[in-house]
Amino acid sequence: MESIDKNDEAYWMSAFRDGESQALEYFYKLHYKTLCYFAIRLTQDESETEDIVSECFVKIWEKRADFKTAENIKAYLYIRCRNVCLTYLRDLKRKTAAQQLYFNQLEQSGNTILHEIIEAEFLNVLDQELNFLPERCREVFNLIYFEGKKTDEIAFQLNLSVKTVRNHKARAVDQLKTAFLKKNLSGPFYLAFLLFIDGFGK
Predict the structure, then answer these.
(1) Exposure pattern of 79-91 as b/e (b: 16+ CB <10 Å)?
(2) Which of 43, 44, 83, 135 is the most exposed, fewest CB within 10 Å of its CB?
């Protein structure tokens, strides 16, 4: 009997259209976190984001017979997510400044949404690669780039010298750059990484 390669996209598409729940789980694991990154940027509301993304997966399951390729599924998920986020923001009686900004951008759509998709996918890949960093490097990286802390603050918090903190930061950045290049994540993804590194943690 011929073995089945469960990394084979054609296998999962066939199983998905046939209504096999494992196939839905496969696409859920593949896209859920990235869609959450995408939606939270737009809604600025974590609980609403989870509801919106879950609803998107309900919709692709209902329409599973209509999808021909995995790219069709991905495209539909982003379009559906964008539209539901827009509806949520439109119906929101009181918007924060950030929510109003994204509502205006969503109505205009175009390149802004493309940039948000690229950033969401980049953050998902970055999140995966951070798990491969040494523990202290990962901790320093998160404090600098996600919590916005300065080198001397981190040194005090972790009881390290400023030089050691800088070394951990440099090692983390170098390792992540290498990982991105090895994955052939050139073009928009690598540019997003460089902009991310350049824009924060100075």
Answers:
(1) ebbbebbbebbee
(2) 135
Identify the three-state secondary structure at position 95.
coil
Cβ atoms of residues 129 and 176 within 8 Å: yes
Summarised one tens digit per residue, pLDDT across range 104-128 is: 665 655 555 666 666 677 777 788 8
- Does residue 42 share a domain with residue 11? yes
Same domain for 17 and 85, yes or no, is yes
Residues contacting residue 87 through CB under 8 Å, at least 6 positions apart: none
The answer to whether position 114 is within a domain reads no
- Lookup: tokens for 19: 């209504």
Q: How many residues does the chain have?
A: 202
Residues in contact with 131: Cβ distance below 8 Å, sequence separation at least 6, in sequence order:
138
* Residue listed under structure tokens 């970055």: 126
Backbone phi, then psi, for 110, in 5-degree steps?
70, -140
Domain that holds residue 161: 131-202
| Both structure tokens of 83 | 């539209």
pTM for the predicted model, two decimal places: 0.59
